[in-house]
Amino acid sequence: xxxxxxxxxxxxxxxxxxxxxxxxxxxxxxxxxxxxxxxxxxxxxxxxxxxxxxxxxxxxxxxxxxxxxxxxxxxxxxxxxxxxxxxxxxxxxxxxxxxxxxxxxxxxxxxxxxxxxxxxxxxxxxxxxxxxx
Length: 133
Prior knowledge:
The chain has one helix at 2-22, and strands at 33-34, 41-42, 54-58, 64-68, 72-73, 78-85, 89-98, 107-109, 112-116, 122-130. The longest helix has 21 residues, at 2-22. The strands form three sheets. A four-stranded mixed sheet has the order 5-3-10-7, with no helix packed on it. The chain has a four-stranded antiparallel sheet with strand order 4-6-9-8, with no helix packed on it. The chain has a two-stranded antiparallel sheet with strand order 1-2. It has one helix and ten strands. It has two domains: 2-49, no CATH class; 54-130, no CATH class.
């Protein structure tokens, strides 16, 4: 009797394992899934919008202060760089470098420098030079 019962339990366990492994549900599925908390139906593409944010830091330089518009943000966001030179100084060059060592394109929007946030942390370098008269 005990042997038949243990064989039956083993058979049920095997069937459950087979069902679980043969039809996985999760991030690799291209089908829509339900959000358990809100009860809303979400597609896998909706999760791509919830990207990670990355740090934006300004290097400390003599001759002025650099203030990025954000301290961290998602990739694709336009980040504005506020530059306030000290008396007798002006900005010489503006450079934004990723953590991987890649230089980003910096452009002017009105009177502010801007760049598009990549998928990596960045450091903003501004060199200040003596004001030309």
